[in-house]
Amino acid sequence: MAKKRADLSKVLREILGSNHVYFQPPNGTKIEYPCIIYKLEKLDASNADDMKYIKNKRYTLNVIDYNPDSETYEKILDAFDYASLDRMAVNNNLNHWYMTIYW
Questions:
Q1: What is the pLDDT of residue 1?
Q2: Which fold would CATH assign to domain 5-102?
Q3: Residue from 44, 50, 91 nearest 68 by CA
Q4: Nearest 5°: phi and psi at 51?
């Protein structure tokens, strides 16, 4: 059974401890911090015998927090079998952790 994006949102809300989880928010959306913004990046599929037998959705996440010592990105790394921290940046006094996960 395929994992649903709504289930991913639920897991991310549990990790963050709030409802400030946004999937591809449109311009003008009021973002509250700390938060997680995520989007579908790619669908990886493996084929055999003219059929797709493995499909993995790759999502990019941006964890944003005022706290430079936030543990949210570490909780994400622990919660997902396939997760990586790609880079970290600071912009307008907000800390951004850019991550990739497979769901």
A1: 46
A2: STM4215-like (3.30.2000)
A3: 91
A4: -135, 150
